[in-house]
TrEMBL record:
Record-linked PANTHER family: ACYL-COA DEHYDROGENASE (PTHR43884), ACYL-COA DEHYDROGENASE FADE28 (PTHR43884:SF20)
Stated name of the protein: Acyl-CoA dehydrogenase
Presence of keyword Ribosomal protein: no
Named cofactor requirement(s): FAD
Amino acid sequence: MTFNEVAVVAEAFGRSLVLEPFLATAVLGANAVLLGGSEEQKQAILPGVAEGQTFLALAALEPGLRYAVEAPQTQVSGADGSFTLTGEKNNVLGGDVADHFVVTATQNGELGLYLVAADAEGLSRVAQRQADGLGSANLKLDGVAAQRLDAADANAVLSEVLDLGNAAIMAEAVGALEASLTMTAEYLKTREQFGAPIGANQALQHRAADLYAELEYARSMALYSRLAVTSEVPGAEKDRHRDVIAAKIIVDRAARNISQESIQMHGGIGMTMEYPIGHYAKRLTVMTRTFDDADSLTAELAELGGLIEPQAADLR
């Protein structure tokens, strides 16, 4: 499956509010193994993923580190192919059902990616549900046996995997935003007050039109990020991360505004658990904060552009 096909599936998932570990397995976990693993590791893991028999999860976030995935506190011991991991991971997307984890850890200050079986001795997993209902887990690793993925540059692999993840998140967000706005427009047409649809009020028409324009802007940025992560132009990889985070800033802000405005224009019914518009808002809120948010990305973009000193805005 190419990434363009992945994005089409992700957008359909967002539109239908499908809560499955697709992002965790097919995008994050599978690409970590594909980009960082040896041929032997790929053959051991990826066929099961393709058949739908194996679930993966990327364990990169840690307690107290917010979005600083590039400097994990999980430590590695051992050498010559025999490694053990000790540390904690939280909010592991898809971790509740994962058969294998791709874990970020450091040894002598060097970042590495390690493959850990979910049933490995010393690994404890606490499954949980996020605010949107999607499954995740917190992990504790105490001398857990692990295989190191053979990537020469784990930082580069992790960066590309997260960029692919964010591009997929943006595609899913566009699907959810489209569904939210369609539902809101239909409500404005059918909900009546004082003998007329509330959509007859020009003020609500203008607000809906503004949201539609914002949706199309977000869609364009999601497509732009898709181009960035699939570009085969020589040297394009150096601009990939910048382009992806610039696009996600726009999509994150659109997700917040459109989801909140959709609830507002529904009135009281939009706040009920039984009505779906609030569930789209929860999904959009969680997905746009999976590995970063608009504030942390804005600070990172400013660093990349030389507008502020590195870590001057400690939002990650």
